[in-house]
Amino acid sequence: MNGIVNVLKPPGMSSHQVVGFLRRLLKMKRIGHGGTLDPGASGVLPILVGRATRLSNYLTDYDKTYVAELTLGIATNTQDASGETQSINTRFSVSPKELAEALASFRGSIWQTPPMASAVRVGGKRLYELERQGLSVPRKPRQVQIHSINIMAIWHEQETLGFGTRVLLRISCSKGTYIRTLCHDIGEKLGVGAHMSFLTRVSSGPFRSADAHTLEEITALAAQGNLEFLLPMQTALPGWTQVKVHPLVEERIKNGQFILPEHLLDVPSALTVGDDVVLLSVDGEMLALAEIRRTDQLVCQPFRVFME
What is the pLDDT of residues 141-157, one digit of tens each? Predict the structure, then answer.
């Protein structure tokens, strides 16, 4: 069994727990995820099954889109609703224009300091492990990209925004972005304090929440022997040219040996030196990832083989 499951992770489960659940359900040892999602968050969590686990680095590199709720006036030690309250600010007034200007200042390239409640390693230890020991250590800021940040809704009683105002945001960003830290930093920018009170991931690369399956749906389908939730491995690489190869050269591909252009079938577009391609069997099974190169002639050189 090889492929990708687009899971709609429920809040309250860690990404590791989702992997364990599906490992037991599908009776597969080789299962991993394509990008951690916090236990308190819900949303898209691509799960890689079988040989698809070798695609994990491609999935984690994808941009992500989140819907997050920002609550003004309350800052916590974890920067989200699960932590202890660090400060409360009940006397402030922020106009919608001031909020919009603050959000705009975070668009583009920004620097973030990873929160202690994160999986980043410092000195060989996960930060969240150190936090559980009551420790706080210096962390190096990292650069991330905020492609867009838009207001979806604002829940408040006055014309201006005050204590307890909740703002629903849609955020498109690069890998490695901490949305809880972004919410905390927005509160700091406004000078009022804030935390992330809700988070769901609505997309991770080509995977969308509208197409995702709940664990209950997957369990029901698996009980019927229906694997329609298992997507082909090439689903993870929508921007790559996919070409089928002649069956007689599959053994060469299996051994990592180059094949020639005449061995490629149904090439959808002209290939040039440097192009990356997905090699498929005539039945559509993913065989390898390859690069078009030129030696003394044009060749297709596999660099990651999935055949066993």
Answer: 899 999 999 999 998 87
